[in-house]
Amino acid sequence: MSVFNGKHIYLDIYGESHAEKIGVSVKGFPGFTADMQKLTEFLERRKPSSGVFSTKRREPDVPIFSGINDGKITGEFTAEIINTDRRSADYGELYGKPRPSHADYAWYLKDGALDFSGGGRFSGRLTAPLCIAGGLAAQYLEMQGIYVSAYVAQVGTVKGASYKSQPLDAHTAAKLREGEFPSLSKKREMLEEIDKARKDCDSVGGVIECIISGMPGGKGDNLFGGLEGKIASLVYAVPAVKGVEFGWGFALSTMRGSRANDGLHYENGKVRLLSNRAGGINGGISNGEDITFSAAMRPTPSIFSEQRTVDLVKGEDTVIKIKGRHDACIVPRAVPAIESAAALAVLDEIL
Q: Which of 23, 75, 257, 272 has a CA positioned 20 to 30 A from the CA of residue 299?
């Protein structure tokens, strides 16, 4: 199991990629009536598609709830998903042979594991229960006027539209990213980039950007109580995320303060910022502007080319060629997972 114990919300995500079931237990959620059809549509966005980027594993991902009746949430609930399309036999030849850049070898060092079927509890499959809790959190936030939208900003070397290059809010981003591939521009070029990697028996990574609109100012705190740290900690729970930056992030390090700073002015009697390079957070506290951040995602480690590794049973070097069903690019399917992580962090902060 993996636990998030926030100020108000408690999450316990459990199960493994090829186990009978996966699930999430939640405590401390606000009471409200959820739109379960809307949740179903949200979960559909995470599921594999017919696109060139997606795995051929097909799971219905229909949650079985305990503690929610007719959409009414009273604080605590559990949701479980039955894994119906398991093929652990695909990993039979990999016993004791850690796949490069997977959690396999680190898992072995921690628990002595030798059976790496599907990544176990480290699999991206565990983002399904994360999206159940996150999808419901997003619904409650929308009732409070807070909207969370993420989209694919980059695949490989192909860069699409970004909040850094054009005015964007969560509503605009949500409308522009409609369709099977949730980017705002250059969808064709991004898909071509993925297809090239797939045909080379390889994979490709990318960048997901997220915008949180309607976040009230004054939320968060300094040091360990910072809002950036809270959001980032949940975003890093999404497998394959290797970097998080807020606003203009690392680009700020190349600027002088005169350009990096966000000036202030009065607009219709309300204090507003002239720019938002800081990403809506100063000193760990929301400043009332949109919160913006980017998450860099590494290429899927499971590729169909030969790779060097070791045989932990025989104690020797070896070469493996991974079989099974894997995404050539996990980035598009990770978009709702990033939204879920952000929504849960914000919800825990505003309650």
A: 23
What pLDDT is stored for residue 232 in this prediction? Answer: 98
CB proximity list for 238: less than 8 A, separation 6 or greater: 124, 127, 130, 295, 334, 337, 338, 341
Instruction: Compare 349 and 322 and report the one with higher pLDDT.
Output: 349
Residue closest to 278 by CA, chosen among 286, 270, 266: 286
Alpha-carbon distance 262 to 259, whole Å? Answer: 8
Work out the end-to-end distance of the chain between its first and last CA atoms, rounded to an integer number of angstroms: 25
CA distance 331 to 93: 28
Q: Locate the DSSP E strands across 157-286.
A: 158-159, 206-213, 241-246, 264-267, 270-273, 281-282, 285-286
| Amino acid at site 34 | A
Answer whether residue 82 shows pLDDT above 70: yes
- List, in order, residues 6 or more apart from 229 with CB less than 8 Å away: 284
281 touches 287 (CB < 8 A):
yes
